[in-house]
Design goal:
With 1005 residues, the chain is α+β, with helices and mostly antiparallel strands. Helix content is 49%, strand content 13%. Among the domains are: 143 residues, no CATH class; 148 residues, no CATH class.
């Protein structure tokens, strides 16, 4: 073998030129290749070079391999939750559309009763690509955003800006396409090659990047094609390339997307142009936020509409309109590399860049010379603030309410962020009814409509401007799936929601809450007492410390076999006087109440009749019995506390009352004086007496006990009052007696002791905080309350204890009300709560009616029935509201009794205006029940008990909370606020008349 090789190498050497003959070692072969080997190597290299050249030009091999691999990155939509789905980590587009937060959204939704009913199943390769940060190849939607549909699938709200998008490649004017490709990606016009990679630009960019990393002073340039730029600003973290690995991910994702439909990339090239123009980032504009896409950029930055721009660019020649349209398009295409700089910070630089780009485009023949010249003559006009259209809140009220619910449900920070989610919502709202109610409320603003429909009648809109009345309607439908919101409407052109965001005094609708609480307690007593023998009932009658408990025990003693339904009927037949002459000690003082109808004053009415006729004094006295019921069940014996001066709990409770009272006085004083300098404090404390030496001396010795005349003289001088030493000594003898206390000085000044003390502390330390002031005040607070504990002050002691007992009773009552939907933590501790003093919200009142309609069961309201995230993408996830958890909060017999008496309110009581308004298809009347309420809220000034000297209207409200058969329930309100309130005299007759106008739209079951 070795000889043969030597012989062979020798023959080869004889054929080569002498200077190239290889040296030989005896017995060893030559190291050079044979001629045939050289040929084979050269052939292989040539073939590889040719293949590489052809591949660089056509990407034939890439297209086959990438298209096959892209086909494996698949996904399909199937029912139920996916066992394998991966969400992206958070590029700008993924974050904005909510894809990267879908895990979080799922947790929140499932915690509130939603469940996944449909989700994408990603292939193993697709899931892995997402983990690697490579977006699966799919056709991303042209435009995304929040879409809300009504119960029939009709659009209720659509945040997508379809008028600013190119829906297809053929919609893009060729002039825009040619300009874009010339400026950004000239090779994209080719029909072959990988559209995601420009090898020459990539090699140059790579070389410059490597040189910069080695420390050479070179300027790094981007090598990204349009396809890679799209991947970068959509799916890379921060919309930037953070390193070579990130660039590789972008290239891979863009290449796979280009070949997702097969080796032919011609359609993909068109999609790249459309996607880039629709999504290019164009900075953030005031009042709008982030701007994406050419069409949106034209509207937001320049006030131009895309259809008009397209039409102008399609015109022949180079007229001014075409030149203006093209210049603004060119401005955005030129600004895209540094949009904030060019569109916000340095618009002169943008003008220079436009001019330079126009010259290059003209030299290359992309635009003709006439258009180039015309560009110089048209200005670049940025849009001013005047282009913003006023929001029409009333027309969007239902959508606003749903969006706010969704914002809280998903935990997003703002409605702006919510609107950019790729989310479709199927709501329960009935758009037809919603529009009908909104249209009616708008019509009610016009005097002609009000006049034509007989609303200028007494107790309606006989006076006042109808355009200032705010109306609202909430309507729900009871279905097998739950209580569904059908209408959420008003005519208030402001962002707040009158139904859910305002505290309104809705007058006599509070009688419904009072009655529900009363019957709930009666049912509880029936459960405790029914079945007891007569002896036990006798003991309960004797031990009862409140009228309701005593009545319950006596009634069951007389009729032990009474069912709960019959017992409730008897409770409704209990009677109360409607006499308005009694003065009630409640709410911290003496109060008198009036009935709406003076004819009721001499009557004694049942609770049932009191609700039907809405008689105030019946419910004031019923509320007094409810307070007594709860007071009898407090942890202490309220009656003994008042009767026994030496009761062991009397002293500690008085101390608590005195401490709370002194803290309240101190806090009021702190709010009055905080932040003022010494002179301002003194002027506010003394008012007109600020120049009286006598009163100044009293203040001085209150603030400086034990001081002498010299100190007084000096202090007065600092406040511009010069006195002689004799005058100072005289004032000191009169008011500087060390035995005078803070209370004595307060008496002399006719001010509360804690106000004087607080003014002194603020005068010395203007920046003092509340906590520090409170910490210093222990002794002054004790001294200011010391008088209360003297035995001769039994009456003020008892008054304060009665106030405290009433407060404790209302605190015990509040959880019962909240369980039935009352929206606030506390009730106003006053008997006037029975007629509306504790206020309410329309939505909460409707919730109470829903409990009554559902036989005492609270069923949560459904508004967003189904949420479809990322539809038709690899992250497709659909959530549906699961059957709601129901909670019994009222015994069913109580709910039935309430429905019955509410129906009487409509049949023969204060709501009889709507009797017969709702009918079934066969003409029979629907059963309608409800409660009316009116609130005339005033600020009144009194010169003494029962001596009003002024009265100013603050607001007027009227409401009707109702049900229609066992299907619909809701609440309708009318309200006016502000100074104009004085000119209105409407009552609940107004919402009744309006509901009657809507009866034809709502119909009946």
């Amino acid at each position: 073998m070795s000889i043969a090789r030597s012989s062979s190498w020798g023959a080869l050497a004889r054929r080569l030129p002498g200077e190239l003959r290889p040296l030989r070692a005896v017995g060893r072969p030559s190291l050079g290749p044979r001629p045939s080997a050289w040929l084979r190597v050269g052939t292989v290299i040539g073939v590889l070079a040719a293949v590489c050249y052809v591949e660089l030009q056509t990407s034939a091999i890439q297209s086959l391999l990438l298209s096959r691999y892209a086909a494996r990155l698949s996904w399909e939509i199937q029912p139920g939750p996916s066992p394998r789905i991966v969400f992206p980590r958070g590029g700008p587009s993924d974050a904005e559309r909510g894809y990267s937060r879908l895990d979080e959204f799922a947790r929140r939704l499932e915690a509130t009763g939603y469940r996944v009913i449909e989700q994408a199943r990603q292939s193993a390769e697709a899931a892995q690509s997402v983990r690697w940060g490579i977006t699966p190849p799919y056709r991303e939607p042209v435009g995304t955003g929040l879409v809300i549909r009504d119960a029939r699938g009709l659009p209720l709200y659509d945040a997508r800006s379809r008028s600013t998008l190119f829906s297809a490649y053929d919609d893009v004017p060729p002039l825009i396409v040619n300009t874009l490709l010339f400026l950004e990606n000239r090779d994209l016009a080719r029909t072959a090659g990988n559209p995601a990679i420009d090898w020459r630009r990539l090699a140059k960019a790579g070389g410059l990047y490597a040189a910069s990393q080695l420390g050479f002073p070179v300027r790094v340039e981007g090598g990204s094609t349009l396809a890679v730029q799209i991947e970068k600003y959509r799916h890379s973290e921060g919309g930037r390339t953070t390193g070579p690995l990130d660039k590789l991910r972008q290239l891979a994702a863009a290449s796979l997307r280009a070949y997702r439909s097969g080796p032919d990339s011609r359609e993909a090239r068109k999609e790249i142009v459309v996607d880039y123009l629709n999504t290019m980032p164009l900075a953030a504009a005031p009042g709008h936020g982030e701007v994406h896409g050419l069409g949106t950029g034209l509207r937001v930055w320049f006030g131009l509409e895309l259809p008009a721009v397209r039409e102008a660019l399609a015109a022949p020649g180079a007229n001014a309109a075409k030149a203006s349209a093209y210049k603004h398009v060119l401005a955005l295409l030129s600004a895209v590399r540094a949009p904030t700089r060019y569109l916000v910070d340095d618009r002169e630089a943008l003008e220079r860049r436009i001019a330079a780009s126009a010259d290059q485009l003209a030299d290359a023949g992309v635009i003709d010379p006439d258009l180039r010249r015309a560009l110089r003559d048209v200005p670049l006009r940025f849009r001013g603030n005047s282009g913003h259209h006023p929001l029409r809140f009333a027309e969007r009220r239902a959508a606003l309410a749903i969006r706010e619910d969704l914002r809280r449900l998903l935990g997003v920070s703002s409605l702006y962020e919510l609107d950019r989610l790729h989310l479709e919502v199927e709501s329960t709202v009935d758009a037809r009814l919603q529009q009908a109610a909104t249209r009616l409320f708008q019509q009610l603003r016009t005097p002609e409509f009000v006049e034509a429909h007989g609303l200028r009648a007494r107790r309606m809109l006989a006076s006042g401007d109808p355009g200032r009345v705010a109306y609202s309607l909430l309507l729900f439908e009871r279905t097998a799936q739950g209580n569904l919101l059908r209408v959420h409407a008003d005519n208030v052109e402001r962002p707040f929601d009158i139904n859910t965001g305002m505290r309104l005094e809705l007058g006599s609708t509070a009688k419904l809450r009072t009655l529900a609480h009363y019957l709930d307690l009666v049912a509880m007593l029936h459960g405790e007492l029914a079945g007891l023998d007569r002896t036990a009932l006798d003991r309960h009658v004797e031990a009862a410390r409140d009228p309701i408990s005593r009545w319950a025990a006596e009634t069951l003693r007389q009729a032990p076999a009474l069912s709960l339904d019959a017992f409730l009927e008897r409770a409704l037949d209990r009677t109360y006087s409607a006499n308005p002459t009694e003065v009630f000690f409640t709410g911290g003082g003496a109060h008198a109440f009036q009935n709406f109808d003076a004819d009721d004053n001499a009557r004694v009415l049942s609770v049932r009749e009191g609700l039907v006729r809405s008689v105030n004094l019946v419910f004031i006295r019923l509320m007094r019995d409810l307070v007594r019921f709860h007071a009898a069940r407090l942890p202490y014996d309220a009656a003994a506390l008042l009767a026994e001066a030496d009761h062991p709990e009397r002293g500690p409770m008085l101390a608590e009352v005195a401490d709370a009272e002194s803290r309240a006085h101190l806090h009021h004083a702190y709010r009055k004086y905080r932040g003022l300098d010494a002179t301002a404090v003194l002027n506010r404390l003394l008012g007109d007496r600020a120049h009286s030496l006598r009163h100044l001396a009293i203040v001085f010795f209150a603030w400086h006990p034990g001081a002498d005349a010299a100190a007084l003289e000096e202090w007065l001088a600092t406040h511009d009052h010069v006195v002689t030493i004799d005058e100072a000594e005289k004032l000191t003898r009169a008011y500087g007696n060390p035995r005078l206390t803070l209370a004595d000085h307060a008496h002399l000044l006719d001010r509360h002791p804690l106000e004087i003390w607080c003014a002194g502390e603020v005068s010395r330390t203007p920046a003092i905080g509340w906590e520090e002031l409170l910490a210093r005040s222990a002794e002054p607070r004790r001294l200011s309350s010391e008088w209360l504990f003297r035995s001769r002050h039994r009456r003020p002691q008892d008054q304060r204890l009665r106030i405290r007992i009433e407060q404790d009773a209302f605190a015990r009552m509040a959880p019962y009300w909240r369980r039935l939907g009352y929206p606030f933590e506390r009730l106003v501790p006053s008997l006037a709560t029975a007629i509306g003093a504790s206020a309410d919200r329309p939505a909460a009142l409707a919730e109470l009616m829903g409990i009554i309609v559902n036989d005492g069961v609270r069923r949560p309201i459904q508004v967003a029935h189904r949420l479809r995230f990322a539809p038709d993408t690899p992250y497709h996830s659909v959530f549906e509201a699961a059957p709601m958890r129901e909670e019994r909060v009222l015994p069913a017999p109580v709910a039935r009794a309430l429905r019955k008496v509410l129906a009487e309110v409509v049949e023969r009581g204060t709501a009889r205006r709507v009797a017969g308004a709702f009918r079934h298809p066969d003409g029979t009347p629907a059963v309608v029940g409800g409660k009316t309420g009116s609130g005339d809220n005033r600020f009144e000034t009194f010169a003494g008990p029962a001596r009003p000297i002024s009265s100013r209207a603050v607001s007027r409200t009227a409401a009707f909370v109702f049900y229609i058969d066992d299907r619909y329930f809701g609440v309708l309100t009318a309200s006016v606020t502000g100074r104009a309130t004085e000119t209105y005299e409407f009552t609940s007759a107004l919402p009744l008349a309006i509901l009657k106008l809507l009866a034809g739209e709502i119909g009946a079951p």
